[in-house]
Amino acid sequence: MTPKxxxxxxxxxxxxxxxxIAVVAFVIIALAFFLKKQLIVASVNGQPIxxxxxxxxLEKQGGKKVLDGLVTNSLILQEAKRRNITIxxxxxxxxxxxxxxxxxxxxxxxxxxxxxxxxxxxxxKKNIELNLIMKKxxxxxxxxxxxxxSDYIEKNKKSIxxxxxxxxxxNQVRQQLEQQKFQEKGQEFIxxxxxxxxxxxxxxx
Length: 205
Known about the structure:
Low-confidence stretches: 1-9
Order of helices and strands: HEEHHHHHH
Number of helices: 7
Helix content: 55-70%
Radius of gyration: 31 Å
Largest sheet: 2 strands, antiparallel
Oligomer: single chain
Mean pLDDT: 81
């Protein structure tokens, strides 16, 4: 009698188990590549420079100044929110246009200035918004009277060009004095916010 032949069915390669293993392996490889990019910022002759090393050095060099700036910005934004002060896009774009026009008068475009300083347009807009918020917070405290302008011109008339138009001189002096007051009152205002706030630092810099 001929022995019964047992048919052996070949197992399919794309089983559910194999698919799961392949997916997990892909995720692990992708995660390893991602973490490498996150953990290593450069390499010198194959020797890695880790992101943590860079962060530590940055903290040592300017961390205190940067952190204080972030704290100050937070205080200003919190106070603006408390007073329901907001800045719309039209206000920001108007200030951005003024900056662009002033740069063009100096023979430079906004794009060139941003490129030279290594600053993004988004960062500039954020600074503009913060500056506009401060102006609204200090409304009525930075105005300059005609007498202040006249007194300044009288005290500094020797440094004013003889061919300068009186109206132009007054406008320039007014802007200068307003900017000085804005900085002075701004520092006083921020100091008052700091004195009232509860600020905790969890990092020694």
